[in-house]
Fold these 4 entries.
Entry 1:
Amino acid sequence: MYRYLRTLSSFSPAGRARRNRNTQSRRFASSASRGKVVVAMSGGVDSALSAYLLQKEGYDVSGLYMRNWSEHEEGYCSGQDDMESIDKVAKHLKIPWSVVDFQREYWNDVFEPSLEEFTSGATPNPDVLCNREIKFKRMAEYIFQHFKGTDYIATGHYARLRPNPKSGSVELLRAVDEGKDQTYFLVQVNQQVLQKTLFPVGGMMKSAVKKMAADVGLPNATRKESMGICFVGKRKFDKFLGEYLDTSKPGQFVDVDTGAAVGTHRGIPFYTIGQAASIAGKAVKYFVVSKDLQTNVIKVANSPGHPALSSTSLVTESFHWISGPREEIFTPTGLRCIFRIRHRGPLKECTVFAVDSNPAKLTVKFDSPTQAVTPGQYVALYDGEVCLGGGSILSSTPLQ
């Protein structure tokens, strides 16, 4: 059903323009001003302006669109609209663009693992997995193998890169526009790939991106920004999950304070920590506190700020250090840094310790209680503006 069709087709001749703008960090200012770069194009304005900026910088630019989900099977992704948008931009910039099919890889490396996590009671983050397994792994490998002489890949992510002369690595920095920062989704990306990556719009405000796109006449300058996960599309998320997960395991909602059953849930995979439970017939709003696979019980609280939703620490596994682990995690005093547990979540202070001297398994102790720590989601650590990396949340220590 999920046929693997890898195709590459070009639609327009290559173009090249004068260098007149610095689009990345200073690490490129003293290097050769011209090189070959392939831009991962989504059909949106961010990747389109990235292609424009790199072209103006003097790079030989090509575009590449990844087809990760079968629109013909589900009919919900905007793939055809995306490609039409890219074609207009490519013709405007006079650059070639191509299509590559990663449906099989996406299904095996992102979608199925996500379903397994939902089934286990966790709440996965497919966007983090997609960046790690597809965009900055499969796509990068494909580009450097098939686009001979390519120096860099580029994306429209709101993030920045900076060389660290002491370590020889590059550091991942939060975007200038904090409201659009996407480093949370990049916490598991490989260092070697980052060294060959450009984020042209990471140093710009979103408003400036839109204005420049309009000023230079990009055809998609006013295109509406896509939100959410592609394979879900415009459907409600629980309805989508119901097409792939067992919906025959209803159970009880239990009030965390009274121990009384207050309603019936449709199945543990359909709920995540902190979300409104939407219990029929109840005037009081309840929020998910915990999920027990053994008893099939979901405990709920009658306030989003209930102490039962607060945690004092978490344990993360498979933590990926972008530029290598910090030595402080092996000391009794630990590493002082800041963290967030969701995209656009608040940055809060913490202390981090390695578990059993393993830099990939960490205990993150919060300076203050933190709401709705969710297994399966990622914790991202930061030292100021530098993103140190991130890992999947395994468990948390409740406040009460």
Entry 2:
Amino acid sequence: MLRLAAARPLARAAARSVVAPRVRCMHDDFKPQTKSYAAPSITVHEQIQKDIDTDPVVVFMKGVPDAPMCGFSNTVVQIMKAEGVSFKGYNVLASPELREGIKEFSSWPTIPQVYIKGEFIGGCDVTMEMYKSGELRKLLQDAGLKATE
């Protein structure tokens, strides 16, 4: 009984006390860093087209090929590795303008997105189905990116 009686005044005092709001002060070194995807002189869509035209296989993904940051991106990376094809990965998490721009560019709402020889192939599910059926291997061979077996 004594414990309860002693605890009540403390509980009432705590209920009446006013807690000052926390002010979050963050030094610039610790703020999330994003970088602009496109150069100031060109649009995001122009930069995406340039990147797709530059590399034969391009994957717009969450994370980078050595460290994918979502399961779907990882699946696409593993498929490309299994096919023995080198590819260029672009991390959409590093640039909000790229993340939204690639969705508009392809009219495809999800990430990752795979491009082979400038042609949009699809996302993880499409790439996986093509891999399972052998269609991806044939496409890569026809594009001259993989030796014919």
Entry 3:
Amino acid sequence: VAGSSADPRQAETKTAPPYTLSNLKPFTTYTVRVQAVNKEESRTLESNLSNLETFTTLSDKPDQPQQLRYGDVQSTSVFLRWYPPLHLNGAIEKYNIMLAKGRSVNPN
């Protein structure tokens, strides 16, 4: 018989199935590597590790600012102080300060 058949032990040139990493933290840099593993009877055969890939997850909304306090109340001004959110989840661009007469501040 003429011709040759492909050796079934040779790797196919297909893309491996995709995999989604989940439960990652926002605005966090991660590094990932992949390793192929075969089982042969009672042995585990592991490939070398892939190249490193580094990525940063997207930002998300920050936690609320902490420990809002006021002081130095004057007739036309008041001094405000607070601590940044516990989890920034990104770079804080600005703080919005809402003011209302009375005891309720509704952001809408």
Entry 4:
Amino acid sequence: MESKEISMHTVKSLMILDNDGKRVLAKYYDDTYSTLPEQQAFEKKLFQSTYKMDSEIVLVDGQTVVYKSNVDLFFYLVGAADENELLLREILSTFYQSVNAVLLQNVEKRNLLTNLGKIYMIIDAMLDQGILMEASVNNILKQVPAKREEMVMDQSLAQAIQSAKNQFYFFN
């Protein structure tokens, strides 16, 4: 009997495509598709496999894919073929709920592109190199600044600290 190596790397990739199958956002966590042309070919195949289907789970290129469509966007989460579909579905649901909250229940391409920085913050709060780090929508949203000014202020604070460090080292 062959034993499967246990891995915490649950997610192989996460992506959002528009109604034409074009990439809006994509994060790949392994090197299955290491080049941009390979990723684009996979995304095209993925979109063609799911565009007119009613299911939420599909097997594409030997990988388990869960997806959700909304207005003009398709949300995809890719895991290994033997990954638990319910776990992948729950991760995608958490991601979607977090995006929905940040976009104030207006999940559509234009609004998503306007808030792309916050969407990447959601992904970074949830996943680290494909490992699920946070599954609570409330905890994820606590890590995403509500206003743009907060993001700028956090950056300015970091710049001020770095400037102080540089001055400290300069005078010592």
